[in-house]
Amino acid sequence: MRPQNNVWRLGLAEASKASKKFDQKLLESILKGKTLTVYWYMLQQPSCAVGVREVQRALKFSSPSIAVHHLEKLEELGLVRRKPTGEYVLEEEVKIGILQFFTRMGRFMVPRYLFYSVFFTTMLATYIVLCLLGWVWLNFYAVMFGLFAALAFWIETIRVWRAKPF
């Protein structure tokens, strides 16, 4: 009886994973366009409640009803919560679509590749300075590795930054 019980539990775990994957696909299909832009704006105001007019003005929507529509879509998805005062607060942060490539630093959303870009650029600059001071012998392959790594990560950082929804 015990092995069957474990099989049943494994089946539930797989079903739970499948439904979560389905929810992610559903979220990704709904969270696009202006709704994604509103969500991006909400991510930049994590501790603040924002009103409909504030969203309308910040995102340059033609009327408040457009902002209300997209905020209600986000509320239905469970990503924002409406307070009794009529303001909306970020409830949950999800990483789907283009949002997977960004991370939050305070109230700023920055590409994840930025950290690698800065790291490799700093390491390359430090190595070259140490070589110029005579503390380390210059190695062509080390310089090329640092140069190509820094260049590749800066290209990816800029590419992701240009794809941001806001």
Using brief descriptors, characterize the structure shown.
single chain; 166 residues; mainly alpha; Arc Repressor Mutant, subunit A; 2 domains; two-stranded antiparallel sheet; 6 helices; disordered N terminus
Termini separation (Å)?
56 Å
* Biggest sheet, spatial arrangement of strands: 1-2
Q: Residue ranges: pLDDT <50 for 5 or more in a row?
A: 1-22
Q: What is the ordering of alpha helices and beta strands?
A: HHHHEEEEHH
Q: Please report which band the strand proportion falls in: under 5%, 5-15%, 15-25%, 25-35%, 35-45% or over 45%.
A: 5-15%
| Integer average pLDDT | 80
Tell me the radius of gyration: 23 Å
Tally of separate helices: 6
CATH topology of the largest domain: the name is Arc Repressor Mutant, subunit A
What's the number of extended β-strand segments? 4
Q: What does this protein structure show overall?
A:
The structure is a single chain. It contains 6 helices and 4 strands; from the N terminus they run ααααββββαα. Mean pLDDT is 80; it is low at 1-22. By secondary structure, the protein is mostly helical. It has 2 domains: 2-96, Arc Repressor Mutant, subunit A (Orthogonal Bundle); 109-162.
Task: Explain the layout of strands and helices.
Layout: H1 2-30, H2 34-43, H3 52-59, H4 64-76, E1 80-82, E2 88-90, E3 102-105, E4 108-111, H5 113-132, H6 140-162
Antiparallel strand pairs: 1-2, 3-4
In short:
The chain is mainly α and 166 residues long. Helix content is 62%, strand content 8%.
